[in-house]
Amino acid sequence: DTGVSQNPRHKITKRGQNVTFRCDPISEHNRLYWYRQTLGQGPEFLTYFQNEAQLEKSRLLSDRFSAERPKGSFSTLEIQRTEQGDSAMYLCASNTGGIYGYTFGSGTRLTVV
Amino acid sequence: AQSVTQPDIHITVSEGASLELRCNYSYGATPYLFWYVQSPGQGLQLLLKYFSGDTLVQGIKGFEAEFKRSQSSFNLRKPSVHWSDAAEYFCAVGAGTGNQFYFGTGTSLTVIP
Q1: Closest among A84, A26, A83 to B43, alpha carbons compared
Q2: pLDDT digits 0-9 by tens, A8-35
Q3: Mutation site for A-interface testing, chosen from B100, B107, B108 by largest number of A Cβ within 10 Å
């Protein structure tokens, strides 16, 4: 069990560029979640997958955001045409069911300049 | 709708002193409740969870929390803080489906020698 792995750890991009983040969950976890955390706030839910199916999306996930989990293993989160308001820590988590809580990755910190 | 309130933005305690971090939640049914800890630049680590049974739950690193339904509270306690406990603490509530957690805005803990 190597934990939840997120890459890259940091990303600086210019406004208007596209960025993609990757998350590798714990291998036996069938659920994968994406959260966003801005400075001074708690994490906010973005979306969640059960295996390869994206079952729930937050209103925070605008049409510039897309997430995939093609084979039910790793997941990617893409942000198109980045804006300064997208600057945040993007956290990935996984588990086998909600009552067990999450195992979080270390996050990807995005800075849009 | 579910929500979590952490009324203390920042708390300072002396090393060796006791600690209590407050958490109040809003949820119509029996909630799943969690406490997470986050060190700077890191993801969140699960300290403890409650979803049924004994209302006093024990967690890692010597932490405990008590679920009080009548007060809609889930306060985190530690009898003697260590300098390494300095971090950000988040309370979270999960719905019955467990698909999405709602986090509070966090309490920042400073430990002075």
Answers
A1: A26
A2: 999 999 999 999 999 999 998 999 999 9
A3: B100
